[in-house]
Write a structure and sequence with these properties.
By secondary structure, the chain is an alpha/beta fold. The chain folds into four domains: about 110 residues, Rossmann fold (3-Layer(aba) Sandwich); about 130 residues, Transcription Regulator spoIIAA (2-Layer Sandwich); about 120 residues, Transcription Regulator spoIIAA (2-Layer Sandwich), CATH 3.30.750.200; about 55 residues, Nucleic acid-binding proteins (OB fold (Dihydrolipoamide Acetyltransferase, E2P)), CATH 2.40.50.140. Helix content is about 30%, strand content about 25%. It contains twelve helices and 20 strands. A five-stranded parallel β-sheet has the order 2-1-3-4-5, with helices on both faces. Strands 16-17-18-20-19 form a five-stranded mixed β-barrel. The chain is globular, with a radius of gyration of 23 Å. The two termini are about 40 Å apart. The relative contact order is 0.09. Bound molecules: 5'-deoxyadenosine and iron/sulfur cluster. The site of 5'-deoxyadenosine has 12 residues, from strand 14.
Length: about 425
Amino acid sequence: MNYYIITFGCQMNHSDSERIASVLEKAKYKKAPKIEGADLIVVNMCSIRRSAVDKVHGVVAKFKKLQTKNYKLKTVLTGCILKKDRKKFAEKFDLIFDIKDLPNWLKSLKNTKNYFKIKPKYQNKFSACIPIMTGCNNFCSYCVVPYTRDREFSRPAKDILNEIRNLIKHGYKEVWLLGQNVNSYKSKIQNPNYSKSNLKSKCQNQKFKIINFAKLLKMVNDIPGDFWIRFTSSHPKDFSAQLINSMAKCEKNTPYLNLPFQSGDDKILKKMNRNYTVKEYKKLIKKIRKKNPDITLSTDIIVGFPGETKKQFENTVKLFKEIKFDMAYISRYSPRPETSALKLKDNVSLREKKKRKEILNNILKKIALEKNKKYIGKIVNVLVEKQKNEFLIGKSRHYKTVKFESNKNLIGKFVKVKITDALSWGLKGKLIQKK
Ligand code: 5AD
Ligand code: SF4
């Protein structure tokens, strides 16, 4: 039996798909190179925007056609699914399951107690996604995640560290610590200094130590080996001074941060239930830059949130220009079922949303180019990801896409590249030497 997985959405979904693949392979399924060769199609969906759900309809149309030729073909839906869509898709798929139920999904895996305990089938041999927590308690008014992924759950630090240690032993060069909101990571670990005696010092009298994200980062950093640490996503309201320090101190942590601001207007931020003001966001960025001066910053922005006036959008433009982000993921507001913003009238026209997005994109292009030009003449470390024609393409420590000519097989390796050109999307350079 052959399986084929189609994944939409964020890195978390991609990471989940690695676990789905592993469950299937344990059950003796083999990966089909193309959808046409599959006996089982798994769709791992995303509900963040309407357009993401529409993509699933496209896949349904495709497998309906395939089912006319292959009567054995079974289809399964998982991922971030809203209640409303679950009913709609129930008729289209043979099975719908929650990702949390993955361990029980295939009966052959009776021993697997916990979803996170499933060893994933990593998509590549040098960069791995490590989920550290899942779910969200924040209930931003536009967002489906608290409904599709439930409340926050942090994975035990011991399991995370073991998984990473094992990957590094096998030559992995990069780990992504993933969660909907990594800053609210919290787990317990047994205190190695715990003593039952009466003469306890402060650090001895607790049986368990609480591990927050700043501490976890430090513990990952302490794992021996030559590798990079990246993490996403972060919420500004939970970004502690301790984490800022930890980021600066951990030499394996890379100078890249995605910190969504969503809107540059306090009233809209309130309606979004984001729990910070523009002033607080700016202050936070200042603190982060003070400790990590050359950090690459990216952000997420939603344009055309219900009631967003031209003036309020101008405030987003102002903040966007002021901070000078290297990258931004700009979305047009999409009303989503079950979210509280659904009650608000989606009164910014599609045309206006498109216009606002274009305005921000044009600013981004200019600023990103300016920022990238600063790398010209510099030598940067790059983790090579892929080959395209005569070029190798990878990411620098600062998460800049770097392209350089080479016919050597360097995929999955660290190399040094001298930057010769800058574009808005990234950098071009010349290979110097293998690290
Ligand atoms: N409409 C538009 N964009 C959204 N996002 C989340 N929900 C919506 C929505 N309903 C965006 C936010 C978030 C990113 C992952 O997707 O900017 O940070
Ligand atoms: Fe969604 Fe807000 Fe949670 Fe991010 S923090 S996943 S935007 S509810």
